[in-house]
Records
---
Amino acid sequence: MTSETKKKSKIAIAGGGLLGRLLAWRLSQQKFDITVFEAGDLSTPSGACWAAAGMISPLSELVRTEKQIYVQGLQSLKLWSEWCTQLESQTGRSVEFRRAGSVLVAHGKDRNELLQFLRELQGKLGESAKEQVESLNSQALAALEPALGSFEMGLYLRGEADINNHRLLPLLLNVLRQRGVTLRERTPVSCHQKQISFAGEQQQFDCVIDCRGLGAKEQIPGLRGVRGEVMVVESHEVVLQRPVRLLHPRYKLYAVPRSDGRTVIGATQIESEDLSPISLRSSMELSSALYSINPAFAEARIVETRVNCRPATEDNLPLIQNEEGLIRLNGLHRHGYLLAPAVVQQVEEQVAQQLLQVA
Ligand SMILES: Cc1cc2nc3c(=O)[nH]c(=O)nc-3n(C[C@H](O)[C@H](O)[C@H](O)COP(=O)(O)OP(=O)(O)OC[C@H]3O[C@@H](n4cnc5c(N)ncnc54)[C@H](O)[C@@H]3O)c2cc1C
């Protein structure tokens, strides 16, 4: 068989959330025949990916997680910037990937939270802390983020970024459609080596990639859901330029502004797989933390609330399992946007290795 007549390797991707879409997009640039199986509707995503705020914060996360998350986060930041440029040229639309850093603040009485955070970050970053983290006095803070004028100090984490997931996910879907990727919606599947099964049917593939998030719970021991709640508010009076985090002993908050004047605020982290609507307590805590950043938020309108569960492993680290004809990736927990490109790139390499013999 000449290289032109070789049969394309068939890949099944189970789950059309963040990992599934990103992987399908990347692999569709190579000569593979790809089918995506999604339990729900791809145009109204139901996974954790849609509820997320899209923060890409390797530095903020470094203080509370393993160094691996930071390292893979930096790798992902670089990839996001390349991949978003590609996706924008393929679709002619902006993904709204913003690399404007993020700002951390704490109220006067919680100043120690901020100082402790800075000490821990400096301890972990060593010399490079100087380039990556800047302490701001009230004037410097007001110049960078005028809406935070009432705070005495803040920290500017220069390299952090965020992405508008409500633009990214539909754009990825558009490109998959344009490229002729087979999309099987409303089709919940089970994953096996080289085989997908659903509704009493089996289909054979050269490789199956399981990206079902919490949907893979039965096959991945210890996988659990961690409930997260966010609210979306609209304010004409307060405009933030970049993600802002409020450090507080009890009520932690981030606020991620979007280009349409809306701000995503969140997120709770509750050890529960309950998917019922946001609780009164969570909505009050998020609202009052936001109001404490700038009282002009009092007139903001709550336009949406979102609840979903982050897929997390026992050690809260990403999981990539590779056996012949079946790759499982999962456990991105609260780091889906932070880590997805690095994880996807690793899997792309494994797929190429597995299928080299077949192609
Ligand atoms: C409130 C909240 C805020 C968050 N904020 C951030 C943030 O700011 N930054 C960040 O980095 N991360 C954030 N995350 C985490 C991030 O959203 C997740 O880590 C990420 O979405 C995980 O991606 P995934 O593709 O593994 O799973 P998902 O995005 O959940 O996708 C899994 C997909 O598989 C489908 N599926 C399930 N079962 C089956 C089946 N049997 N057959 C076929 N398909 C199936 C589901 O319908 C879904 O579409 C947040 C999460 C939440 C809940």
---
Amino acid sequence: MRLLVQTGLCFIMLSCLLLGVNQENKHVKAATASSKPVVYLTFDDGPSEKTKEVLAILKKEGVKATFFMLGKEVKQYPGIAKQVVQEGHAIGNHTYNHVYAELYGSFANFAKQVMDTDEAIYQATGVRTNLLRAPGGTFGNFDQGYFDAMAKAGYIINDWNVDSGDSTRVGVPEKEIINTVEHSTLFNKTVVLMHDSSIHGESVKALPEVIAFFKKKGYQFAVLTDQVEPIQFRLAPSMKWKRPKVTAAETQTVVQYMNRTRTSAAIPPPNTQSLIVHAAGEEIKFEPLEYKMEAGTTVVPLRQLIMGLHGIIRLDMAGGIVEAMVNNESISWTASEVGGSGTSLPSRIMVPVRDTLQRFHYAIQKMTATKDKREIWIELS
Ligand SMILES: [Zn+2]
């Protein structure tokens, strides 16, 4: 096991990448630092029978994606929602029924749909997701009140910067979808909007070529997480909807819901359980006090995890960036992403275990928990 500590110059390139980001939006602060540009494929409005076809293609191509699901579809296809998680993809919340007039006619309705969907996703998959995508996107639908209330609750609102156009009308043909993607402006961090509802057979047909296009352009594929700075549209000067302002009480309802479902109180305290990650016949063991549960996410010391995976860690103390390399794959975090601030890295760098493993292309095969230990089995996917 090697531990390389480097400073300064080596990271000039990385720092430059950090600055290269879609400027359309004031909320976007920094792109994920990486040696390669990153594409996040996102599929909205599922799950449906089409999702299975999408999953088969993603598996064949060795690509992970993010699925923004509708609560009502999750209720109908809980098994498919679960399969999405089991195959290492991320799930986001896309409200319950997608009916614009209900969602954007009143924040109380919007919030209720988000909470109902959260519960549906949790029941089907065991995952509590903080990722949210507004049906139709935020532009003209979200006012500052919507943005603020959802952010206060801990939601990360994700719009996109490449629209595949697969939903501009019913039945947009495969060729047109591919053409739209190939002629879009691409970014160092590209978030592609696609759909996997039952009417999106053409999107499924287009998918292999969309993936091939990004591979050819040198992109790496990743899933959205709480740690990925979201693409958000700018606030529209006027709204498409007339509605009352978001009230403090309405905001409080979502904040309290999130507190109730995300705090450690909702999850058995880890301080009596050790955490064991089984990777290729090896065990990476975290003692009860070595890892933490934060907002429903298991957070572990980066160094221990990476060394257990026979990887390398590089610290750029001057730039405040930590980079980990496992199996020739490199991931970087800025100080603020790992609990530091500015360019100062914390003495103990903690990362979300599930997200980090997924970004290194490990799929979680199995998870178990008993009174005294929690175990995760992972495999390179
Ligand atoms: Zn949608």
---
Amino acid sequence: MTQTFSRDDVAKHNTEDSLWFVIDAKVYDVSEFVDAHPGGEAVLRQVAGTDATVAFYNLHRHEVLTKYEDLCIGTLQGEKSQVITPQPGDLSTVPYAEPLWLTPPFKNPYYNDSHRRLQKAMRVFTDKYITPEAQAREKDGQYISQELIDRMSKEGILHMRMGPGKHLHGVELLGDAVKGEEFDYFHDLIMGQEGVRANARGFQDGNMAGMVIGLSAVMNFMKDQKRKKAIMDEVFSGKKKICLAITEAFAGSDVAGLRTTATKTADGKHYIVNGTKKWITNGVFSDYFVTGVKTDKGLSVLLIERGEGVETKPIKTSYSPAAGTTYITYDNVKVPVENLLGEENRGIYVILSNFNHERWTMVCGTTRMMRTVVEECLKWCHQRIVFGKRLIDQPVIRQKLAKMIALTESHQSWLETITYQMCNMAYKDQATYLGGPIGLLKMSATRAAHEVADESVQIFGGRGLTQSGMGSVIEMFHRTYKFDAILGGAEEVLGDLGVRQAMRMMPKAML
Ligand SMILES: Cc1cc2nc3c(=O)[nH]c(=O)nc-3n(C[C@H](O)[C@H](O)[C@H](O)COP(=O)(O)OP(=O)(O)OC[C@H]3O[C@@H](n4cnc5c(N)ncnc54)[C@H](O)[C@@H]3O)c2cc1C
């Protein structure tokens, strides 16, 4: 593409047989392409021989052009491209598109060089490997490829997604971006926020979300240390998949209402499990099921292997089948008693113990998605011309953006405050002091997401309801933000948890 042309050269190519135009100082010859243009021939003929930059960006995302690079025949003499094409790993230069700690000249007390290295490495990885696969799977509904799982395993990404801990010691993490021994909850936050930039909510859960919520029960509660290590190795190497199976049609929020039973055999060596589970993420492709069951005097948690009597089938939901949402039936499944996680009849502690991290991870994702939506809206408002003005020139639209930015920034700051407590509070104190605040934070983040999703669709108009093109991220977020408002604890339940924890801490004396 070394040839250069004047604007007069381009202007001559506005005939039936020869159709050229300019976009962003580049000259395109679409003479042979007009019939294939998805938007029809007429709109291309209207801009023949002209600079079509404004008309193009009024309708299209920049990425569209990269599909048609072979139509570009040269550049305009003495003119330079103004549009920025992001490269893998780049930070966005759009205001509020990155958290303040990544936005010069803002300072932040929480992040050091290892956080910056990890952020950079994970962004490159996401841009190069996760996003292309996520977008493809989101469309075709297939499950995550073994190739991507293997790649994540090799880079220690699967390990890091379980949060800080001994399992990271000695593991090479994204080319040594961070030492396992120094990995803290801010590194964990970065992993959570960078990963969701693939903009595919269904695939996001399909990408080993079952492991994030299920493996921790094995890591913290399996008594046989050798077996525990073997299972962790299988999962971290990507050879085996695991999920958390608590919810049933009969009981979701009210975990105590579970009806799946586990009855001990007469010789006391096995449990026989019968029952069902509903909406289990990654269940269809899992080998291990961390399962909530009813034993004689309460709830217990068993690690159940796929085998005789375990059946899984996909459930269709409003996000992509790539998530692997599953209905499970257990029919006289024989489970060795060694597979009991934690104590018999005290499984509620196993179930509750992981909730803080699960909910906090979901806030990381929701907050980052809100930010991406803010970025999309800011870009769109500067491109879209209505009534002869850019959308951004409408005060009503600026008010919507102000609300969206404020909601995003306030939740990121609250999230960082809570994350700092997680880094500095003994694990046993976290249940007492952070269960309520994390519940309130998740409730508030998904309420904010509701507002952001709603306003963003208004800003994008029809495109906000269209799965391809300019508004595809907005459509996806509006269709899927509710998953975070229900999964891991519904808003009402979490709000109530937060207030009940505050009630317990009220001073005894009347105020
Ligand atoms: C796509 C998807 C994936 C999931 N993945 C998993 C998984 O991997 N593993 C797993 O175990 N579960 C999973 N779940 C289940 C999820 O955690 C439950 O759906 C959730 O806990 C809510 O339970 P429920 O749907 O039975 O709603 P219910 O408990 O029937 O509640 C319905 C509504 O009632 C209201 N409500 C309930 N209790 C109260 C209260 N105390 N006060 C006020 N209002 C209340 C809330 O508005 C709530 O949304 C998944 C669900 C979905 C949809």
---
Amino acid sequence: MPPDRARNADVLDLTITQKHHSLTNHLIHTKKRKEKENRPTVTHTTEVIEISSDEDEEPVPPPPRTPKKGAPPTPNERARLLLTALEKKFRALEQEKKQLEAQVNCLRQENAEFRAKGTVHLNNDDVDEHILCEVCSLTMWTPYVLTCGHAFCGSCLESWFDRALRDWASRYPQFPPHVLQAAHIARYGIPPPQYLCPKCRTAVSSKPTQDFTLKGLVGTIAKAKGEAKPGAKETSFRKYFDS
Ligand SMILES: [Zn+2]
Ligand SMILES: [Zn+2]
């Protein structure tokens, strides 16, 4: 190759090499720029943490989420709906309770007024005069009335008649005691014993009878006075009277 042509070839080769190098640099620069553009932007922010005391302020509940139309309620939404329904029911029951209490108070007042109207106030001494037995001075829980109209305890009358019978029988010592009873005395032709009212001394001609009306009144008054009814005792006047 002649020297001129060889020098021209070197210059051409150098030019091509420089252009290639320039193109390569351009491509590298373009690639780096694109990578930089695609890289996610990192924003540095300053977080502020507020520290507050729970005693000073209550935590604010998150606002209720509006359910989407047609979507089934979440467990939290169901719980909130149930709580709302229960609170409504509770308020209704409270209202009903107040109304019932007002009715009860009204009825109590009416009952007190009714009882006050039906209550009879009696003098204790006046009452005792009629419900106490004049033999034993105790309450006549089981009153028996005589033909004269006076009433006494059945047991008191029994004791009263028995004493009279024993006094009468003492006049007839020849007869055994079981004979000297109302059912047998008439057979022996002797005058029968005389039984008298403990109060007015009127002869008692027939067996005393239990006065159920007086018994009821005595029981009611005695219970109102706080007395307890004693055990009932069987009373029979068959020993002293035929009828
Ligand atoms: Zn008595
Ligand atoms: Zn009498």
